[in-house]
Each structure stands twice: as C-alpha cells, then as structure tokens.
Amino acid sequence: MDKLKRREFLKTASTAGLAGGAALMAGCGSGQESSGPAIRTDRTYEWKMVTTWTPNLPILQESARLLSQWVEEMSEGRMKITVYAGGELIPALEGFEAVSQGVAEMGHGAAYYWAGKAPATQFFSSVPFGMNAQQVTAWLYSGGGLELWEDIYAPFNLIPMPAGNTGFQMGGWFRKEINTADDLQGLKMRIPGLGGDVIKRAGGSAILSPVGEIYTNLERGVIDATEWIGPYHDYLMGFYRAAQYYYYPGWHEPGTVTELMVNKSAFEELPAYLQTIIRTAAARSTHWVLSEFDARNNEYLQKLVNEEGVQLRRFPDTVLTTLKGYADEVIAQLVETDEDSRRVYESFTSFRNTVTGWTDLGEKIYYSGAMG
Q1: Exposure letters 215-226 (e unless 16+ CB within 10 A, then b)
Q2: Fewest 10 Å CB contacts: which of 2, 76, 288, 341?
Q3: What is the pLDDT of residues 69-101, one digit of tens each?
Q4: Which pTM does this prediction carry?
Q5: Helix or strand run (H / E) with residue 352
Q6: Stretch (H or E) spanning 9
Q7: Mind listing the pLDDT tens digit for each residue in 288-331?
Q8: How far apart are CA 158 and CA 108, in angstroms?
Q9: How many Å apart are CA 19 and CA 33, to the nearest integer?
C-alpha cells in the first residue's frame, strides 16, 4: 500500500488502536499459515461491497447480503460490510476496477465480466462444454485452480474467492427456433464470456449487459435471445413474456462460479482471524448458492411449461456439435495469444481429464438409469 492510501485507510479506520502483531495470510487460498499470532482487539472495520446484481435479485444479491451478515456474526460485530447493488454506488459492471482502486473493499459478481481487464479471468467463471459445478469446485479448491486465480488477480491488487455456483444453466430464451447452426447467423444475443465469443464465431453478435437491462432489451428487440441462469430466476425475470422458446442444455455455462473479490491491500491490513472469517463466509456461500438453485429450478421449470405455456426445446445435436467446434477454436486462439490463459487452461484441462474418469465410472452410469 502506498503512503497516500495508507494515510487514507488510517484516517477512516476506527479510533481504536491498530491490532498489533496481526500477520498476513501468505498464499491466500493455498492454506499456508500466517507468519504471526492472530491477536484480537476491539477494533472494528467498516467495509463496502459492490455487486453486479440488481437490489432484490434472489440468491445472487441475497448471497452477497448473507455473506456480509455471516462475517459480522462470526466476527462478533468487529467487521461490518455494507452491500451496494449494481448502480447504487457504481455502475453494475465496474466492480473490478472499483475494488482494485479501493473505492470499495469488496466486489461480488462473476469473473467472466472482467475479460476486458484480463482474458484469463473467464476460465474462473465458466468454460463452454467444460466442467460441472462439482468438478470445477474440486479444481479450484483441490486442483490448483484457486492459486492460479489469485495469481491472475494479484497485479490488480485483488484477491478472488469462490462465493457461489449456479450449477448447470439453461441454453437461453430465443424469439425464434434454432433448428440448424445457420439460425445463429445474425443473432443478437446477451451472453458473456467465452460463450459470447462462440456465438460471434457462429455468425451472431454477443452483447454484454447487466441483469437489470436484459428483459427490456429482449422485449424491445434490441436482442433476439438471452441466456441468464435457469428456471427459477428466468421465471421471476419474466423472460417468458418476451421470448417463447426456452432452449437447453446450457452448453456455455455447465457450472458457473460466482466470486467475491477483495482489495488486496485492505485484506492484508486485517488481523488473521478476520481474513479467515471472510474466506469461511465465502466458502459457505458457495454451498448455499448451489443448494438454492438446485432446490428451486425444477419447481419453476414446471411453472414455465405447465402454467405459462413455454415451449421447451433441446438444441439439435448438429447445433451442439457445431458450437463445440467453435468453442474449441475460440479457446485455442485465446491460449495462443495470451500466456496467462494458456497456463490456466492447461491446468483446467489436465484436471478435467483426471476427474472425468472418476465421474464416468460413477455418476455418469448412475444418471443414465443403469442403477434403477
């Protein structure tokens, strides 16, 4: 932290004395021990968290507020985090820069929103035709993925942490049927990350817009299609009123990670026990978010189909095969031109190849109905 930022930090901090002897958690998510004792004092910290979500968005904005609540409870009130939805403090998709610069100490969103800052960030949210939620979580926590994520964010004065997973998503809402890959030509679709690059390669246009603008853009024809998450959110967002065809599977996002990013300088000023509390709250949020989506999606899928008359469609195999080919091309080009992306994708691919054998032996057979 430079001298100016340090003076600003000290000026806004509580008048209680600094926590003496609090050491940094070296290696962040790598599990290394701190270099000194976690001395606790009565000093309090008041932080800000900005999110990419709308103010009342269930599960995602809700999880940001819960994370703040859990930190306050576990710290016995020594850390309080005020949560600002997208647009309340800064525009929804400017959280990366805001947290990097210390405008807010925390941000909540998804890493593929920051592809313009560093292309490799996309691999830490979702990879088209990649790993599912369980597999990608294993890669992050037990396969070296989190250490790479921290390395990619370090030059931006940020520390990333997994803070949720949507699970497998739907393919999206379309105002026309998709019968062949030719139907993607000229399609204007709201879709972020690597999936958006695939749509571009297929001849369409990929548009990145915050959640609060999606319905209006779809209704007015600014876009022809949109992906979001799955039936629970899509029902509440009312997309079925603006597009009649609901496609699956979500080839572009088979297990999408949501993130908590923390200003590195501010984090390293915290005593070790508060650092651990933040990490613990983020890990708890990962399980909570995935559980909520899994618990609600089928109920709302039935509402969409049986009550709203939504036309459920499966992408034809020929379309999926074409999209898979484009996805391979997009990723190959990215790893050729960006060294960080190459390092991350090599780790991602190596872990996927390892974990797939175990998945095929057990879960794939189980879900195929072979066990009754």
Answers
A1: bebbeeeebbbb
A2: 2
A3: 999 999 999 999 999 999 999 999 999 999 999
A4: 0.86
A5: helix 339-359
A6: helix 3-12
A7: 999 999 999 999 999 999 999 999 999 999 999 999 999 999 99
A8: 12
A9: 18
